[in-house]
Amino acid sequence: xxxxxxxxxxxxxxxxxxxxxxxxxxxxxxxxxxxxxxxxxxxxxxxxxxxxxxxxxxxxxxxxxxxxxxxxxxxxxxxxxxxxxxxxxxxxxxxxxxxxxxxxxxxxxxxxxxxxxxxxxxxxxxxxxxxxxxxxxxxxxxxxxxxxxxxxxxxxxxxxxxxxxxxxxxxxxxxxxxxxxxxxxxxxxxxxxxxxxx
Length: 198
Description:
Blueprint: H1 3-20, E1 37-43, E2 49-57, E3 62-71, H2 73-76, E4 81-91, E5 95-97, E6 101-114, E7 137-150, E8 159-169, H3 170-178, E9 189-197
Antiparallel strand pairs: 1-2, 1-9, 2-3, 3-4, 4-6, 5-6, 6-7, 7-8, 8-9
């Protein structure tokens, strides 16, 4: 899929919500357990589509999120895949662009658990000890760039992030390091996503 088609949908959603947002005169104090934002992400080794919620912690030094990801069998060519991910993103620095835009290089890591039936956390008895490592756990490393837009007149959402990332899974990285048949060019993939702030 060409990158320009991947970028069109989040951009349209971002500006549609900003255009139709209305000013709210009610200021509410948020409870500590209420997420700072909700998100949707396409691709990125944590599901074809993943959704969830996140928090800004340590004075916005870290964005941490709990996500559910899904890959349909039409894409996986096997069974439906269900994934639970804890994703951690670190903003490297923030650069204001105009009044309402901020651009931020980002880097981070995620830990994913496959909760489907095609993977395992402990080695099945049919295999000898040490024959395989657990296949249900994966770590993802990524880097990218995020653009934040504040909504001046906001009723539901007060702002949004749009981001693009490039990352890999730890097993792919290991194969690229230890095998001559796998190159670094083949282990990275792209993802895009949107965060909507309350």
